[in-house]
Amino acid sequence: MEEAKKQQILHRAKEVFQEKGYVSASMQEIAESCGMAKGSIYKIFPSKEDLFTEVFVACHQTMFDHAREMDRKNHAEHLSPKECLRQNIEFQLQYMLENFFFMFEFTELPIKENEKFIAAWKKKRATLLTLHRDCILETYGSPVEVFVWDVVAIYRGILREYLYYTVRKVIALPMSELAQFIVERIDAVVNDLLASEAKPILQSTNTYFQHLNPLDPLHQQQNVSGFLDALAAKIQNLSMPAPARDELLEVISLLQKELAQDSPNRTLIHVFMTYLETIPQLRPDVRQLALLM
């Protein structure tokens, strides 16, 4: 009985949140929609934040469960990898369209400060990223593994943008046709990456970070170090006298050593970066470096 009541509350709360929005929806309205006293809601969900988080989790869990069940069914029917991908995309687009309020990133809502919600959001994001990675690998096999996270990033960007246009009623296209269009675009991306032997940009170590899951200091330091290595390679190809290039490379080396310290000297770092910025070809890179730091 208690579980049935909980599921009823989650179902009604989902409808109220979708209709009113997080801020405007009240526990009183949700209770009235359920036909029960507000106190009965609070016995199960201590706060609106807790209730919203549970709805958020349930909404995504339903999507994950349906996606896995569809995969099992498709494999049992021996569908081609491309058709499995198309059906997977069609399902995701349709489900996200129907549950759009719970699918976007919540950057503007107060709920993003709630610890329980942040934990649920991180878990959702990790699960969805893994689902998308597995989907790409199952479709294209081991050749795509080296740059699978770049394909996933492009794939997710395409899904997000076309879903946004669909929600805003800018485009009106059956999800089956849109899914086929996206499969063809991903095909083109994968074929180009394979043909050009492109160097991957994303790795598993930096894929799972986002605004609610910021980069930890170790990975941030690794990113800065990698960027400085790339900057040193660029300097070696600059058209200037060798002594001038050597001096710039020495500044890069000193900057790397200083940044590796437990407590870097910020004044010294500023001096090094100001010097690098005197070279017009390096100014955009120095500004990017400042953002990375």
From TrEMBL:
Identify the SUPFAM superfamilies for this entry. Homeodomain-like
* Keywords in alphabetical order: DNA-binding
Q: InterPro entries in the record, alphabetically?
A: Homeodomain-like_sf (IPR009057), HTH-type_Tx_Regulator (IPR050624), HTH_TetR (IPR001647)
Q: Where is the HTH tetR-type domain?
A: 3-63
Q: Which residues bind DNA?
A: 26-45
Task: Fetch the Gene3D superfamilies from UniProt.
Answer: Tetracycline Repressor, domain 2
**GO terms for MF:** DNA binding
Q: Which domain of life is it from?
A: Bacteria
Which PROSITE patterns does the entry link to?
A: HTH_TETR_2
Could you identify this protein by its name? Transcriptional regulator, TetR family
UniProt organism field:
Brevibacillus centrosporus
Which lineage ranks, top first, belong to the organism behind this chain?
Bacteria, Bacillati, Bacillota, Bacilli, Bacillales
